[in-house]
Amino acid sequence: MRTDLPVGIHDLTFATTSLVLTHDELARHTGTNPAKYRHGIGQTSMSIPAADEDIVTMAANAAAPIIERHGTDRIRTVLFATETGIDQSKAAGIHVHQLLGLHRNVRVVELKQACYGATAALQLACALVHADPRQHVLVLASDIARYDLDSPGEATQGAAAAAILITTHPAIATINTPSGLYTRDVMDFWRPNYRTTPIVNGKKSVDTYLEALDLTWHDYQQQGGIPLEKLRAICYHQPFTRMAHKAHHHLLKTTGTTPTTQAIKATTTYNETIGNSYTASLYLALTALLDSTAPLDGETIGLFSYGSGSVAEFLTATLQPGYQPHLRTQAHQQAIADRTPLTYDTYRTLHTAQLPTDGTEHRTPHHTHGTYRLAGTNAHQRLYEAGPARTSST
Ligand code: CAA
Fold first, then answer.
1. What is the chain's alpha carbon radius of gyration, rounded to the nearest angstrom?
2. Burial state string for 218-253 with b = 16 or more CB within 10 A and e = fewer than 16
3. Is residue 3 pLDDT above 80, yes or no?
4. Hey, what CATH topology would domain 174-321 get?
5. pLDDT of 257
6. In sequence order, what are the beta bridge partners of 141?
7. Distance 228 CA to ligand 1 centre (A)
8. Given 53, 83, 154, 313, which residue is catalytic?
9. Which residues of the chain does CATH 3.40.47.10 include?
10. How far is Cα 237 from Cα 209, in angstroms, rounded to an integer?
11. Is 15 helix (H, G, I), strand (E, B) or coil?
12. Which of 1, 354, 392, 3 is nearest to 178 (CA)?
């Protein structure tokens, strides 16, 4: 195994849903002061999936431009991270493999540990590429954050998929060693198999997130990590964007560091309008940072990944010289702008709709703006199809 080769992010993009609910619309109906949503939790809107969108369609839509740019020949592994699993047995990535026309000589697996799953996938991908530098690994992180109606979590919903291509000599960023790690058995947020929404202890989840940040940072330092002052920015997992600000203040306070030029606001612009996307959230924060700031060539940034339950990791990435032309800023802004606003009543109808569970044939209406769609279900199988992308609908 060659461990001296630079390995990391060669391409990075995301897709979201075709529908959006604004927090002003939510506030009008819940009677909540809109300032609580805007400033208290730091959200302005959240992506809501149409009836023909799910984690597979979002992931396929996210990965398609990467395949278009880099081809399929060198992809030997697809790692699909999610906590919105559609099957207890089959990996959702196999549907994506089929939709994108990947080769048969590929391994596809699904990974789960709440929102941390994508970072586990990223690290496994780097290890696979170190072991076989010829191969490219496609990491997909796709989730729909869905909470009970009228619950405190409702304002922190959202949906998106990130697609990341891991290779040697990456165009965008190398992933560095060491990492700081953390695991503690805690019931702050979980979803038993029989539920479609999680059970959440909101306050405990925030406290555990901050504890995990403390302990991963401490471990990162113990493992020989670089000091906070040398990190140009830190991207945090963002269940809601105020959490990133809370976390950063907490880290500065506990380490006794004075605020520097580290950019946090720039990391929140996509998540504040898309909402929580669980596994994808941290990578949307990274994308937002790269898309919106002046060149960070050669700079090292921190990444804090947290998954309830709970597992966390603090790692760093170093931006490669000349990375900016490889970004997909316009496509990201377009995906956000293209979403169709929902009324509160339509949102509630969509929230309660469920696919049949008795195996009868069901066809979903064509609403998605994306290329890939869930066409329906039959005989307990999800049926996907590719079609021309649409630009408007509801
Ligand atoms: N103007 C400005 N701010 C206001 C306000 C107003 N009019 N009214 C209230 N606020 C502020 C409050 O002061 C509070 O701020 P602080 O946190 O700084 O004290 C903030 O708005 C939130 O208000 P509440 O404390 O009343 O909280 P809530 O009952 O609405 O619940 C929540 C907030 C716990 C985040 C809830 O949305 C939730 O349970 N979300 C899901 C769980 C979650 O996201 N946990 C995060 C860590 S777990 C994780 O990261 C994994 C994951 O992805 C789920």
1. 20
2. bbbbeeebeebeebbbbbbbbbbbbbbbbbbebbee
3. no
4. Peroxisomal Thiolase; Chain A, domain 1 (3.40.47)
5. 81
6. 81, 162
7. 27
8. 83
9. 7-172+327-386, 174-321
10. 9
11. strand
12. 3
The pLDDT tens digits of the residues spanning 92-102 come to: 999 999 999 99
CA distance 62 to 43: 23
The three-point CA angle 46-48-50 to 5° equals 160
pLDDT digit string, tens, across residues 191-234: 999 999 999 999 999 999 999 999 999 999 999 999 999 999 99
| Angle at alpha carbon of residue 330, lines to 326 and 331, rounded to 5° | 90
Please choose from 200, 211, 241, 282 the residue to mutate so as to test ligand 1's pocket, defined by most ligand atoms within 8 A of CB: 200
Judge contact between 212 and 312, C-beta under 8 A. yes
Within 256-328, residue ranges assigned H as helices are: 271-274, 281-292
Beta carbons within 8 Å of 142's beta carbon, 6+ residues apart: 55, 56, 58, 59, 62, 80, 81, 82, 84, 92, 160, 161, 162, 279, 280
What is the CATH code of the structural domain delimited by 7-172+327-386?
3.40.47.10
Ligand 1 pocket test target in 30, 41, 283 with most atoms within 8 Å of CB: 41
Contact of 339 with 393, CB cutoff 8 Å: no
**Coil, strand or helix at 272:** helix
| pTM exceeds 0.70 for this model | yes
